Fold this protein.
Amino acid sequence: MSAYKRQSKVSDSNLEPDNFPPEFYNNLDKIFLTKRALQELDRRNSLSPAKRKKTYSEPLPSLARFARQGGPDITDLRGCPEPEDDPDFSEYVSKSRMAEVKKPNAKRSSAYDANFVRMMADHGIYMPDQPFEEREISTPENLDDIYQLMTKRRQSLDPKVFTEEDFRSVKARFRDVSEGCVTHTVIPHIQACEAHSKIPSRYNDLFNNLQPIGDKEVVGPKPDIWDGIRATAVHATVENALGKFITPKTSSQHALVVPNFFIEAKSPDSAPIVAERQALNDGAYGARAMHSLQNFMSVEPSFDNKAYTFSATYINGILSFYAHHVTCPRADSPGGLPEYWMTRLDAYSMNTHRRAFVSGATAFRNLRELAWHNREDAVQVANARVLDPRESDSRKDDRNDKRSPPPPSRSIKFGEK
């Protein structure tokens, strides 16, 4: 095993690799000088052959003429020792930085840096409002429907039910600063709802079974919280055919599949952009899972340009929401692969006053339930095609219809809990 592979090997309990593989940087047309990029430069320099002093059999004519005039004044160099033959400065820098990394209080650099964003864009996965040359940013066709649903009234958040005193009690929880406290203390108060207790979810799972969208061995999704559907609800034929697209983990008991709602939470001293880039990674895999189910057994994949996957980030009291959707490959796309877009929906300051908290919690609960219905509908459609293949043709026209999506199932009435 090479030195690089020993350093970058990722275990199931690891968040991120120590660094990207060399191929990651080789495939970038532009490299940003992030900490990880500099570490890779140091690694490559340490492997290069030592520089040796060049000798010449006879002096160059210009040097001979220069020497006849007495040459340069080198009196300041008298008594200085001759340099060694192998002063590999880059190796020295690399070792000193490795020593710095080993310090107990040293903070590890995040894999979600500017080069990660560049790599994702090269594979057709785009951040919100990412600038393009001569290209229009794609937004979901159902964006108006999503905004309308986000503001649907929740009875559990009415002033007589969720009072000012209740808000002050919840706000006290926001003083917890660690990421674990945010995930297990703050988020449950935002999603607190009887109906939400029925939604299957998991914490801090590394998605180690999904086929990579971009470069292999770069960074696999590991959302702080994600929602899915129980594997037993998916027909065995569907799961066998789409396992690498809808099944994040294979080793877990009571496995969940089809992830399409994600939460990334950070402590106040963390960088908000890192959480957003993590949500970008999560959402792309979720959007692909939904699209694979919707097109199961279809002769040609169809794209309705609608969002069925959502993510949320929470950092320092700010709750932000995003929608993720898939579009057809571009005509000039080298691999002919679909593109994945992340759209910023809204953000709420959850620890300022009651009205802001209610608005954010309302949007959170409504979007989470919408994602639930979306994956249930997608699984039902795929299961039906196994039992009756004719369903594949009948559903094709429905997905190409640009009208509003069908109403959700009646198991939950939006805005009543």
